[in-house]
Amino acid sequence: MVSPDTLLSASVPADLTVPVALGDRAYDILIGPGLLHRESPWQGLPRASDAVIVSNDTVAPLYADRLADRLSPHYRRVLRVVLPDGEAHKDWPALNSIFDALLGAGCDRKTVLFALGGGVIGDMTGFAAACYMRGVPFVQVPTTLLAQVDSSVGGKTAINHPLGKNMIGAFYQPVRVLCDLDTLATLPDRELSAGLAEVIKYGPIADPVFLEWLEAHMPHLRRRDMTALQQAVKRSCEIKAAVVAADEREGGLRAILNFGHTFGHAIEAGLGFGVWLHGEAVAAGMVMAAELSERLGLAATGFTARLVRLLDAAGLPVRGPASLTAQDYLRHMRVDKKAEGGDIRFVLIEGIGRAVVRPAPDGLVAECVRAHTAQG
Ligand code: NAD
Ligand code: GLY
To answer: Is the per-residue pLDDT at 351 higher than 80?
Structure first.
């Protein structure tokens, strides 16, 4: 007779581990289903009296009890800070409410913070961990695809300022990243697609074989096939981990992770943050950056069309919004954090799997925007 456990192990993929090689700040990314239901992924974390789960009012009701169950054998107290959901709350008042809770509960400098949520919670919790008593350990428990493949890895932490997104922050690495793929089951379709934009970006910048794999497996990913999701998260994390290990503080190479982001940030800023999701703006931005790569003679003819087909299959926009003109893009790009002295730098594809960072003439940039903007 086949035991139920055997059946389970035959259909459920085993956990995969991706190391992030950062010397004395090295850590592992664990990727698998059911991590919040099992003891072993939570062993060996820093010892302390207190663990504090930081989450929001959407994710906490879904997963905070399970996380608290996993942590309670290891910590004397497991406290919770539940913030309002949304990018609009990635700000000083929300950050301060984390400090209020920690200080109010008498948490000491060994307290371990657990970021349970998407990139907003991850970025804010990481920044709180970097600042509280000059630095306490934190663990990323990302629950969106975007956070599992991008924001939870690499130690960029930040809050927004009224004058700019992610303008106040620090590089501060987590001690572990635990990607429970089961949490993706409750993610809205639109958020899943937004995460797929960041997955897709890794193909053109680093891995032609992964790009082909994504083309073959996009239907599996959209129907949330567990094995396909695990492969996509793993390969994305491997690429991000390698880039971060080579250039933690974005002295050069790390900028390639921003493929499509220069155009994308202009869309987000131009429409008002939150109108399009970040991943949606990056998708249309990658199309424009691909077009620019082709027109500069870097990428082969047909690369943009290929990317458009894949992004479309992922349920993502492939054209910029009709309400923004090329001049709007250029204006927003000049004040982007990635501009240097007003000089806009673009991540361009020089053959699939190889990215370069270059300036480009305004006129050509404007042509690429117009070529891929929806008609009003
Ligand atoms: P998000 O954190 O706002 O999450 C998206 C939505 O999904 C939210 O409403 C959230 O409550 C909800 N949600 C999260 N997990 C869920 C689940 N399992 N089931 C149901 N709903 C769930 O957005 P995001 O796309 O995860 O992250 C975007 C943020 O990440 C931005 O602030 C961006 O600046 C940041 N970011 C940071 C980095 C980095 O390197 N640090 C990289 C990329 C993006
Ligand atoms: N998401 C871009 C980076 O981590 O550098």
So the answer is: yes
User: Which CATH number is associated with domain 16-187?
Assistant: 3.40.50.1970
- pTM, full prediction: 0.95
The answer to whether the CB of 154 is under 6 A from ligand 2 is yes
Q: Which residues contact 339 (CB under 8 A, 6 or more apart)?
A: 333, 345
CA distance 102 to 92: 15
pLDDT at position 163? 81
8 A C-beta contact, residue 345 and residue 281: no
Query: What atom of ligand 2 comes closest to residue 255's alpha carbon?
Result: 5
> At the fourth CATH level, which superfamily is domain 198-371?
Dehydroquinate synthase-like - alpha domain (1.20.1090.10)
* Cβ-Cβ contacts under 8 Å for 272 (sequence gap 6 or more): none
Query: Hey, what amino acid is at 262?
Result: T
Distance 153 CA to ligand 2 centre (A): 8
Cα separation, 17 vs 289, whole angstroms? 32
User: Hey, is 117 helix, strand or coil?
Assistant: strand
How many C-beta atoms lie closer than 10 Å to residue 332's C-beta? 20
Domain extents for the chain? 16-187, 198-371
Which residues lie closer than 8 Å to 76 by C-beta, 6 or more apart? 49, 50
